[in-house]
What does this fold into?
Amino acid sequence: MRMKWTFFLLLIFSAFACAEDQPEALVETGQMHLAYLHSTLAAYGTAISDPKSTVSVSLARPGQIARLDVTAGKKVRKGASLFEFATDPNASHGYVQAETSLEMARSSFESMKRLHGEQLATNAQLAAAEQGFKDAESAFDAQKKLGTGSNRETIRAPFDGVVTGLFFSPGDRIQAGKTVLQLSRLDALRVVIGIEPEDASRIKPGMEVRLFPVFAKSAKLEGTISEIGGGIDPQTRLVDVLVRIGEPKNLIPGMKLKGEIVIPAGQNWVVPRSAVLQDEKGAYIFQVENGHARRIGVVATEYGEIEAIQGKFDPRLPVVLLGNYELKDGMKLREGAR
It folds into this structure.
């Protein structure tokens, strides 16, 4: 009986001795924390004019571009001269004829009113003279609206804008109604960026977009997605995304830009990138529990220098940040700076 107790005591002593001899690993630890994360999707695009805010400048009479004061891409202020237009002589002749006819019809009507008052003209004659005067007046007003009474006219910008299209040169003769140039409002510019079709499901209207001119990356612009194309552009093989700009300063149509679409990822538990390890079983971390290493499998997503993790971990327990490459599950730990 005494030998049995002696053997039992030896076993207990050996267990304690083994526990004391178990090696300790020096590790550096920290706490995981919650953070709101986002990722970015890079894309390239071009500044364009909003078609709803673009006007075509034309004239209702034929003539000639006598002087051109703008070039394509030039910014202009409201009231600035765009070009000087010389009315075609034949059109001016029509104005003179209409003006002469109006004076003759007015004189005839006045004479007929006097004769009618002296009972020397019938009611029908008076009505005919009045109608003739009204017809001549309408014809003259039409010529005035066409502008044929002006031999030369300076056409001015109706608003602050940028010349987005220029279709004639000085000296060119143009037909009535032909567009001379297109003018777009500066405060109505948009940006179209192209994204890969497989990324279209990740974005939605209202998402923030950071824009950087390709040749002036320090000039950052802020915008939001206003529309996502429903198909693939046959030329670029990308999906077009329309971005609305808050303040399009220093932005002109045709400018090339790089876009970064900000995609929110919500609130996640995060740890430094050094805390996450990989092996054939996948990603994992070590936490410290009762002075020992506890291996926990996780799903990790990298966001720069941190990783968002999901798994059956205890957010209250410290996470091993350094020294984790040497650990095994259950190993005794000693916390400190490495």
User: Anything to note?
Assistant: Residues 57-86+154-184 form a domain with the OB fold (Dihydrolipoamide Acetyltransferase, E2P) fold (CATH 2.40.50.100). DSSP finds three helices and 21 strands in the chain. Residues 5-20 have pLDDT under 50 and may be disordered.
